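All the exercises in this workshop are built on plain-text protein records. Sequence and backbone structure share a record, each on its own labelled line. The question running through the whole workshop is how a given chain folds. The record below serves as our worked example for the rest of this section.
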Amino acid sequence: MSIAKAEFWSIVMKQLRYKLKAYRGIYTSMIIVQVVALLLSLGSTGGSVGSSSMGYSFEVNGYSGNLILVFTMIWSFMTAIVITTKAYRYSDFLMVSNRLTSQVSSLLCLLIISIIGALTAIGADYLLRDLLILFRDAAFIFEGAAPTIQGILGTCMYLILFALSGYTCGMLVQMNKLFLFIIPAIVIGVPMTTSFMLGVRFLTEDLFLFFLDETSFSLFVGKFLLVSLPLFAVNLITGNRLEVKS
């Protein structure tokens, strides 16, 4: 490894450590979001069914931690947008840096934050089960299967994709405010136009089903790389075009 590369990664790691410590408010907001989702999940989110006969009655309620994951995904998307604002970007210039090291350290920070969010969301799902046992008057509680390594990795990749999408949107808007209108127009307008002109059902939700309907983990990883790598490239290019603080 050349001296230049060594110095580059040394600067990136210093910035990364600084950001992980400085962005404490992000962790606080994550906890608040997941607690709210956890409380909402205490209501029956998986449907309910009941019956009675000959003096006996029963009721089956379904509970799911999916709401916690959904809220965490939204949190990761919004957090990534916030990180692209000038107040956060200009904090990099408190130390020796350039636009490339700033972008790489921000993306690595986003990667770590997304993984933390995914792991805490999985942990909150187990906390939900404990709360149901403590506070719900239930004779039986049937738990789902324990998460596998693939399930944990898949959850992390979902969070990373949402974070990268938010970061990309934020960087494009920082580069040109017109993207504030262009991005929603593309997300909403392109599917509607495609459906109208070609007579093919294509909605924004189909973009999510592109990942959610995948049953093969290897194909899911391939789709993840297919989307995430171009987003990484776009962010690096966009970051180099932003002005440097004078």
Notes: The longest strand covers residues 48-53.
